[in-house]
Amino acid sequence: MTRPVVAFQIRGKDPQRLSEFYRELFGWDVGAANPMGIMSIPPGIGGPVEGVGGHILGAEAPGVSIFVQVLDPHETLRKAEEMGGRAVLQPFDIPGGATIAQMADPEGNLVGLVKQ
Q1: In the chain, at which end, N or C, are there fewer CB atoms within 10 A of the end residue's CB?
Q2: If you ran DSSP here, which 8-state letter would residue 102 be given?
Q3: 68 in Cβ contact with 111 (< 8 Å)
Q4: Which of 77, 112, 116, 111 has the alpha carbon at shortest distance from 98?
């Protein structure tokens, strides 16, 4: 049985700034920090019932990435830059697949964008 991805973490030196960034950019409902300093983000609506899929690939450096579904990758990159993030990869179409892009948040965490 395939096991779904059920959680993710975004780490940084200024978690409050990151929570504000993602709340504004993606409309996430980021909760207040618990006594351990952890802020929770509940699942969104409209996601696949089975969970999200992923990939494993070779790379020079280890890391974890997430991909967030957006209506307009160009607009999301523009907004992210206004908010202190930066565009890393402009939107492009994967042959036979989705349109994707990549941004970095204010602390440099990379986040993929997938056009809905």
Answers
A1: N
A2: E
A3: yes
A4: 116
Q: Which helix (H) or strand (E) holds 10?
A: none
Tens digits of residue pLDDT in 2-44: 655 666 889 898 999 999 999 999 998 899 998 888 898 887 7
Phi, psi of 86 (to 5 degrees): -150, 150
Cα–Cα–Cα angle for 48, 58, 14, nearest 5°?
65
User: Contact at 8 Å (CB) between 41 and 26?
Assistant: no
Helix axes 15-26, 73-82, angle to 10 degrees: 140
**Torsions phi, psi for 84 (to 5 deg):** 105, 0
| Tally of residues, the chain | 116
